[in-house]
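Review box. Two proteins, two foldings.
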Amino acid sequence: MMIRSGARNAALASLCVWSMFGAGCTAETGSNAGPEETGHAAEALTTSTISNHVPDGIVYSTGNVYFTTHVTGIRFLEAENGARDTALRIPLVTTASVLRTSKYSTPGQEITLWSETGSRFGDIVWALVDGTYYGYFLSENLSTAEVTIKRVPLAGGTAIDLAGGIGTDIDIVNGHHLLDTDGTNLYWQDATTVRSMPINGGAQTVLDTVSPNTPTPGTYVVGGNVNYASSTSVFYVPSGGTTTPPSSRTIVTPGQSITTISAAAYGSDTMVAWGLRDGSAAFLLTGITLGIEQPSSFIPTSLAPAGGEVFAYINCGSAACNLGGSQLGSTNPVSAGAFGLDIDNSVPSTITAFWGDTSGVHRVAAPFIE
């Protein structure tokens, strides 16, 4: 149940992979919608699947969706006539990609920004740096388990390695929103630390130490503070670091394992939300805790501000998930593995939710409830 307070109102070489999911080929396709496509009318908003690619990490801009994905299968060498030579094959090749598509696109309109074999990509964020839009994403080398941060132009181009390795204890498969940016620095959380690095690369700074928690609930930078969870508590640390002990920077200690967090600006304040292993979720604003969801057998995997003092949520069981919130007209079943919830209120009188799950990337629109 949602409770709202009434007190405040150059082409890449073709690579084809055959697997149980079918064929997947990547090649540079140029550019259609730019990094900030806008101007869609309200009547274009319908419940729809945006992409059939299953996301590993996902982020949204004003008009676009940027996400990472991968496919694992058998790579066949091809003859000049295009025929597959079944005698020359490399089993279990994983190809990871960064894709871009419009929030109002249909499957098949995605553009591949970058693709490589032998890696798996995770969370992705974007920023405007020195006049160019870039995507920053976590990349794990599947041979060494080493994770690094890479950068790719959102118009397409070559990805470069910014970090040179940030460890092997980052759970890019189960954790989400482990990477964030304020446009000046990059911030991320691994099993034991919260760290930062200049957005163009450079020295890494340990901002705080944390206790291991799986899945890692996420890292959000709002109002000059980095918000994160450590086991059963939610903390913040100034983005520039501090010598103040964590005990004086505690936001909330619910007393059980935290599965996901979110944070968003609310005027001069910050709303910080959290989901718990018992299925419940809540958020804190100016010292007041407001409920988002009651305990259940479904565990929160994603939270997103939905306008005013309201958060929408995704919670999941072993085989299915729910998309919920008062603004979305109760609870809506979605596919398993759902995460990456985002709410768009830019169209008057309409609330639009975007998310990814095991069947692709999706959106649904509903009338905004005053």
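Next protein.
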Amino acid sequence: MHMFVRPLGWVLIACFLGSCASSAKFTSDFGDFQRDRSWFRPAELELHAMDAWEMRGRIAVRFDDVGETGNINWNKSIPEQSIRISGPLGVGAVLLTVDALGAEITDQKGNKHFAASAQELLFDATGWILPVENLSYWLQALPGPDGAIEYRVDDNNRLVELRQAGWHIEFGEYKEFNGHQLPAKLTAREGGLDKTRVRLVINSWEWL
């Protein structure tokens, strides 16, 4: 039986909206969000202590009736992060780089474009709606830095679904990567609908 709990220790928290959704805890004001956020703090401290990592996997994005797939290689460190997506995207490979000054995208021809928002820049280049800022946290079964959260955990106190910033994220499978239990599959739906859907299958994690 799934239960809503306050996770303790290093346990990664989780939530899934299903038949028990009516009992989910939802916070809408800043004070409550900060209190809920503290439940995730042990996991954040553990993972953020390893401040540079590389994730490799597969990505599938659906918008309206159009679906595309590709390979994804995500590198993150304290000063910046880079996301390389390649495969049958219709636009070829792209490299998205994000730092404190904004975002830059480079297409397969070497053309560069700049914007303040990584999500906006990626959409302009590929037509993909990808919540870049929060997704790097969701990959680790953690909430993003902003917005109220709603979540549910499974019998092993692992995050199975999260609601944040207008997205519903489901964590379908966990695996051990270098001693840490992390999601191996996740699906993010904007508004909880299939109109905009992002699916990720994580093949490997490496801490640098």
